[in-house]
Design a protein that fits this description.
Blueprint: H1 2-21, H2 38-42, H3 50-68, H4 73-91, H5 106-109, H6 111-134, H7 140-165
Helix pairs in contact: 1-3, 3-4, 4-6, 6-7
Amino acid sequence: MIIEILLQLLRFALLVLMQVLVLNHLRLSFIFNPYIYPLFLLLLPLQMRPWMLLLIGFFCGLTIDMFSNTMGMHAAACVLLCYMRPSVLKIIQPASGYEGTDSPTLGHMGVRWFVTYSAILLVIHHLAFFFLETLEFGQIGFMFFKILLSTSLSLLLIVLVELLFTRRK
């Protein structure tokens, strides 16, 4: 149990450092904003209580907000991601259900399941974040284009990280 918590904290620290020190400074024009830190929230255990999930999501987003000077936008997007996560897990649940030892990783659940799971939750996260960033409907076309491209790039990075660091079941 303690080893699992330490591994989660290490994952959180590494993803935050990668986001803050590398990806936040990679502004590929004003269209691409890759976010890899939601991977920490995506990989939290399936059996986690909803209130704990929301609390962890808030503090994860708040940490990124402190380094990015985004005034709570990441915290709001992360809380929404964590709020929607149990519903998404129910929708994409395998026919046999989840086992007690399953974790939402590419190695345990497979590529198709992981990409579907990640893509849905990343779209929710990016939709919330970029809507809060723009706060107007006048640029809705550009906002959706930005969401599509940023989600695609973020998903690609997240799948690559999972392929590099996940052991197969």
